[in-house]
Amino acid sequence: QVQVVESGGGLVQAGGSLRLSCTASGLRFDDYAMGWFRQAPGKEREGISCISWSGSDTYYADSVKGRFTISRDNVKNTLYLQMNSLKPEDTAMYYCAAAGAYVSVGGCRLTRYWGQGTQVTVSS
């Protein structure tokens, strides 16, 4: 049974930092591209970052480029998202997903397994 579990969310002031983690079990982690998505209340889900299976290629949405860094540890089956210079508009539920494909334009495609999400709230 595949399990994807996010952690590391919380409440932070604007300008602060958080590091999200995502562990996956029940699948061969390095067979999948991995991505971070977020959804704010009343808004559509947004794919904000994706990393290829090897970690050699990364994608960032314009909204987070230069502030967020995605990385993965294929030995620990763990995905990370370092979030710096956080803004109130970054407030959302953040989800991790395992994806069947990585594309240079747009990031993760064919998402297959999702976590339950971790809440990030940035106060002004």
Description of the structure:
The structure is a single chain. The protein is mostly beta strands and 124 residues long. It has no helices and eleven strands.
Short description:
The protein is 0% helix and 57% strand.
The radius of gyration over CA amounts to 13 Å
Got a strand count?
Answer: 11
The average pLDDT is 96
Could you state the order of secondary-structure elements as H and E?
A: EEEEEEEEEEE
The helicity comes to under 10%
Global morphology: globular
| Percentage of β-strand residues | over 45%
Low-confidence stretches: none
N/C terminus separation: 40 Å
Q: What structural class is derived from the secondary structure elements? A: mainly beta
- Largest beta sheet, briefly? 7 strands, mixed
Output the number of helix runs.
0
List the main descriptive attributes of the protein structure presented here.
mainly beta; 124 residues; seven-stranded mixed beta sheet; globular; four-stranded antiparallel beta sheet; 0% helix
How are the secondary structure elements laid out?
Blueprint: E1 3-7, E2 10-13, E3 18-25, E4 33-39, E5 46-51, E6 58-60, E7 68-73, E8 78-83, E9 92-103, E10 107-114, E11 118-123
Parallel strand pairs: 2-11
Antiparallel strand pairs: 1-3, 3-8, 4-5, 4-9, 5-6, 7-8, 9-10, 9-11
